[in-house]
Each structure stands twice: as C-alpha cells, then as structure tokens.
Automatic annotation (TrEMBL):
Residue numbers binding substrate: 53-55, 90, 200, 251-252
Organism: Bradyrhizobium barranii subsp. apii
Protein name: Methylthioribose-1-phosphate isomerase
Role description: Catalyzes the interconversion of methylthioribose-1-phosphate (MTR-1-P) into methylthioribulose-1-phosphate (MTRu-1-P).
Pfam families recorded: IF-2B
Enzyme Commission number: 5.3.1.23
Reaction(s) catalysed by this chain's protein: 5-(methylsulfanyl)-alpha-D-ribose 1-phosphate = 5-(methylsulfanyl)-D-ribulose 1-phosphate
C-alpha cells in the first residue's frame, strides 16, 4: 500500500539479501522510520516491543527471525534456540507459532540458512495472497450493501485497532475489502476507533487510510454504539489475533463491546481472518486463549506531538492509581455475522471452519 505515493510493504528482505527491513510502527504517525533487523534477537525484540505488530506481521517477522538465526547457527540446537526465543515474544497472536512451526517443518531435512530465507519469503508472499483473497470475498459484502441499501451512496465501515496493511505484509485483513472497494470506485468511508491504550487506530489505521486516499474519521473508542443506533454504520469489519475452533474471535481489547453494540443494532459484524490465525488446538476461545497483559504505562501515559513539533510523553492518571491493561478480548462466535477468509465468508462455527480448512485441522492434530 502507499506511503507518500510510493508503494511499501511492512517488512521486506533488504538488498544485501540477508538483513530485514521493517517500518518502526512505534514512531508512527509522527515519524516514518525503517528499522534494520540483523539477528534473531532483533526480530524477537521487534515483536516484543511492538516495533512490528498485528498478528500476520508478527508471524512474518518471526519467520525472518528464524532465517537470521540460521545464518548464525544452523545446528539443531540453533534451530531450537531460535524457536524458543521467538515463540514467547508475544502470547496472543497465534500466527507467531504458526509461522515458527512452518519454518521448523521446512528446515528439518535441509541445508538450513538458504531454506530458511526461502520459506520466510514464501510466508511473506502467502500473506499478501491470502489478503487479496480476503479483499475479493469481503468486497462482495460491500457490493451487496450498495446494491440492496445504498445505490450510489457511501458505505460506512467501522473498524477497531489496526488490521490494515501495517499489521500484515500488505493490504491488511479488515482493510483489504475496503482498499479494493475504494480501488473499484465504490464510495467507502471508515469509522476508525482510536483504540486505547496504544491508539493503533488513531496512529496507524488513520495514517495508512489517509496515505491511500480512503475517506475516514477517527472516533473515540466509545462512539461506535451511538453511531450504530443512528444508522451511521453499515457494517463493522475487524481483524483478529486468534480464532478458536468454535469460531470465538480474539482481537484487540474493546472488540467485544463493538460486537455487542452491533448485535443490539442489527449491524453486521464481520471478522477478516487469514487461515494462519485459526487455532484448531483451542476449542473454546473465551476459556482458553491467553490474553496478553501489557505495561501499565500504556494506560497512564500518552505520547504525542506538541504544537512546536516535539514528541512528548505526559501522564494522564493520578500518581498511585492502579491500572489494568488487558490487550485483547474474546468475542463469542454468536455475535459474529461471518468470518471473511481467503476461501470465502464462513459461518463462525466449528463445522464451517473445519470444512474450509481441513489441512489446518490435520496440522493441529500432529
Ligand atoms: O497489539 P497489536 O497491535 O499487535 O494488536 C493487533 C490487533 O489486535 C489486530 O487487529 C490483529 O492483530 C489483526 S491484524 C490483521
């Protein structure tokens, strides 16, 4: 997708053929800085410190982290050390483990450093292809709304967090149908939840939509229900960090509340889901998906640009007040209208997921 008119991906192999470039998302929207990752540890830190974030991009970064590790030590011990280092970098997005398992399988029988880069490149390209599939399948939903409800009018989509191209390698998941609709000349407007405490919506989604020319409005997190009550949202599309076998959806904290509001107001609530985000090893999302708890400073402090151009961090909570910072929540499948996948729009239930992705069930059983 475009930044200042130039096409970018969120992660790439540098021209030297071995180091990895990634956009430092901690500095957005104020500064566009590219970070260079040169070791497995760099990749682990990039994931842990949220230089990169978003489930698919976390997976892609881990794959390259494994490739960087294999350059240094391609022994069995080296492979195990890289896997163990990367797999704990963040707990909730299952794409991390998926990518590392893919890498481990690909590397078991071969000369490792070269094969690792080859498989990591494939994972990256596969992410773009999957998101193109999601774009096409989600576009049909937007087209149906235009045809049934709003010929020639603007379709209003609400999204939460950043499930845009910055969270993936390109296109995004929740944003993929929006970008495609925009490209096809359909009028779309996006309500962007700011997404406290890290403000991925305000900082990242707004920035990427703006650079790509998609009309959007940033709203405080608590606004969605009001907009839905007044017919100002035609559909919600969010991303996800992990979908359980029963169709429960784990995503950025606050997603559940939007799903409840959508349900109460008859607004379709869709989740854009790349297949590596399905976790067939988890039967019940609410009970079993681990929810990351992050530093309290994300809640107590806010960083922004001052009128004279400086970046400053200020405290907004009284000294001594305890804070809680659950990074994700789980939306029960019954509140989800459909899962937009690369293989079609599925019902959020075990049978539909299993029928669409039988190979993933087989892999989970191994
Ligand atoms: O904590 P983050 O910023 O990594 O959380 C990201 C999200 O919750 C995204 O919506 C999700 O990973 C889907 S990304 C396509």
């Amino acid at each position: 997708m475009k930044v200042d008119g130039k096409h970018f991906r969120s992660i790439w192999r540098e021209r030297d053929g071995w180091s990895v470039g990634a956009i430092d998302q901690r500095r957005l929207p104020h500064e566009f800085v590219v970070a260079k990752l040169t070791s497995c540890e760099d990749a682990a830190v990039a994931i842990r410190d949220m230089l990169v974030r978003g489930a698919p991009l976390i997976g892609a970064t881990a794959a390259y982290g494994m490739a960087l590790a294999m350059r240094e030590d391609s022994s069995d011990a080296g492979l195990k050390h890289a896997y163990d280092t990367l797999v704990v970098a963040r707990p909730t997005a299952i794409n991390l483990k998926w990518a590392l398992d893919e890498m481990r399988t690909a590397l078991a029988p071969v000369e490792r450093a070269e094969a690792a880069y080859a498989r990591a490149d494939e994972i990256v390209e596969q992410d773009v292809e999957i998101n193109r599939g999601i774009a096409g399948n989600g576009l049909k939903l937007i087209e149906a709304i235009v045809a049934k409800k709003k010929p020639g009018e603007t379709v209003n989509v609400l999204t939460h967090c950043n499930a845009g191209w910055l969270a993936t390698v390109d296109w995004g998941t929740a944003t993929a149908p929006i970008y495609l609709a925009h490209e096809r000349g359909i009028k779309v407007h996006v309500w962007v939840d700011e997404t406290r405490p890290r403000n991925q919506g305000a900082s990242l989604t707004a920035r990427e939509l703006g650079h790509h020319g998609v009309p959007h409005t940033v709203i405080p997190d608590n606004t969605g229900g009001h907009l839905m009550q007044h017919g100002m949202v035609d559909l919600a599309i969010v991303g996800t960090d992990r979908v359980a076998a029963n169709g429960d959806v784990c995503n950025k904290i606050g997603t559940y509340l939007k799903a409840l509001a959508a349900h109460d107001n008859g607004v379709p609530f869709y989740v854009a889901l790349p297949s590596p985000t399905i976790d067939f090893a988890v039967d019940d999302g609410i009970r079993d998906i681990p929810i990351e708890q992050r530093s309290g400073t994300e809640v107590t402090d806010m960083t922004g640009r001052t009128a004279d151009g400086r970046l400053e961090t200020v405290r907004i909570v009284p000294e001594g007040s305890p804070v809680a910072n659950y990074a994700f929540d789980v939306t029960p499948a019954r509140l989800v209208t459909g899962l937009i996948t690369e293989r079609g729009v599925l019902k959020p239930d075990r049978a539909s997921l299993a029928a669409a992705f039988p190979e993933r069930i087989a892999a989970a059983a191994e």
